[in-house]
Amino acid sequence: MQSFPVSAKKLNQRVADESFTVYFRHGRSYIKKRTGKEGSREAMNWLDKCVEVAREAALKAGRLIQDAFYEEKQVDLKNESKDLVTETDRACERIIFDHLTQAFPDYKFLGEEQVSAGESQSVDITDDPTWIVDPLNGTTNFVHKFPFVCVSVALLVRKVPVVGVVYNPILEEVFSATKGRGAYIHNQRIEPSEQKELLHALLATETETTRDISSVDSVTKRLNGLLYRVRSLRMSGSCAMSLCGVACGRLDVFYDMSYRGPWDVAAGALIVQEAGGHIFDPSGKPFDIFSHRICATNSHLKDAVIEALKGFL
C-alpha cells in the first residue's frame, strides 16, 4: 500500500488551519456550502483516506483474532491489575501500527498494549494527528471464546476524534464514522433507538477490573439503584461494542465508570455522536476522554439518565 500522495504534514497543516477547523465548527451545512472549494474537497478526501486505512488495519488485525478465537490462549496479567493480555493483543497492535504508519508516517500512534508494556510513558495526546488503538477490546471475552470482541481504531486531531472504526471479526460487523458525516455499519447508515422512557430502556454497563471491597460495593450500589428504573441490564465485556450498540439502537443507554484508557472509547464515542446519540460524563458534564468515565444515550434519554445516576457517582 502506498502512502497518501500529499505529504501528511502539509495536508494536516493546510486542512487544519483552513477548511478542517471550520468544518468541525459548522458541520454538514459547511460542507454543503463549500463543496466547490479546494480546501473542502481536500478535507473530504483526507477523511475518506483516513477511514479507509483505519478499516483496512482493523480488518487485518481481525483476521488474526478470527484464527486464534477458538484456540487455547497463553494469558498474562497487565501489571498488577486483573486485566488480561494475550499474544494476539500484542500481534494485532503490531499489525495495526505497521499499516497505519505506512500510510501516514508523520502521524503519532498510541496503542493500549504499547502503554501497558511501558513502551509509551504517557497517554498525553498533543494536537497533532494521533491514532488511538485498542487492538483487542474485550480480551477476557476473547479468552473465554465469548464473541463480543473487537478492534477499535480512532484518529484524533487537536484531541478530537475525527475517524472511528470498530470491527467485530467474530460477528463480522464493521462500524465506522467520520466527523460530521454520520455513522455506518458496513455501508448502511445507523441511528440510535427512539426509546423515550427510561423504564423501558435496555441499559448496559461494565464492572471494574479492581475487586477490592470498596470498588465492588460502589458498583453494586449503583446497579441496585438503577435496575428498577430500566427494563433490563446487559454487560457485554467490551466498551467499544456497547457504544456501537447505542449507536445502532440495540442498546438505549451505556455507562462505564472505569474504562482503562482513551483507546477503549475514542472510536465508539465518535460513532455514537455521528449516529445522533449523546456522549457525556455520567455527571452530566461534557465528556473528557481522559476521565475514565463515559455515558452514552439515544437522543431522548440523556436527562433521565443523569437524574437516575445522581447519588451513585
UniProtKB/TrEMBL annotation:
Reactions that this protein is recorded to catalyse: a myo-inositol phosphate + H2O = myo-inositol + phosphate
Gene Ontology BP, a term: inositol biosynthetic process
UniProt-listed Pfam families: Inositol_P (PF00459)
EC number: 3.1.3.25
Top EC category: hydrolase
Pathway assigned to this chain's UniProt record: Polyol metabolism; myo-inositol biosynthesis; myo-inositol from D-glucose 6-phosphate: step 2/2
The keyword tRNA processing belongs to this UniProt entry's keyword annotation: no
CDD domains: IMPase
InterPro entries named in the record: IMPase, Inositol_monoPase_Li-sen, Inositol_monophosphatase-like, Inositol_monophosphatase_CS
Family: Belongs to the inositol monophosphatase superfamily.
Protein name, entry field: Inositol-1-monophosphatase
